[in-house]
Automatic annotation (TrEMBL):
Domain N-acetyltransferase intervals: 1-97
Official protein name in the record: Aac(6')Ib-cr
GO biological process, alphabetically ordered: response to antibiotic
Originating gene: aac(6')Ib-cr
Recorded GO MF terms: N-acyltransferase activity
UniProt KW keywords: Antibiotic resistance, Plasmid
Length: 97
């Protein structure tokens, strides 16, 4: 996985990657980025440079329905708001999720 995805993640200067861990084991991935100018048709109306977008996923279907995604998002939001420059955090979850 690292060989396939790590170079493309690290090539994106505006994206900060995170590995979600539980009991010393990796269980998911999350990333944050400056929403302003992020492209891909996302957040095009955003004018505040303090806004961060986030994306997250759990690595194994057996982890679904256990509240781990909620815990991952809460931990990431708490981490990001430790930065005084961050004013808002937004994401675009799937309605079925």
């Amino acid at each position: 996985v690292q060989e396939q995805y790590l170079p493309s993640v690290l090539a994106q200067e505006s994206v900060t990657p995170y590995i979600a861990m539980l009991n010393g084991e990796p269980i998911g991935y999350a990333q944050s980025y400056v929403a302003l100018g992020s492209g891909d048709g996302r957040w095009e109306e955003e004018t505040d440079p303090g806004v961060r977008g986030i994306d997250q996923l759990l690595a194994n279907a057996s982890q679904l329905g256990k509240g781990l995604g909620t815990k991952l998002v809460r931990a990431l939001v708490e981490l990001l708001f430790n930065d005084p420059e961050v004013t808002k955090i937004q994401t675009d979850p799937s309605p079925s999720n």
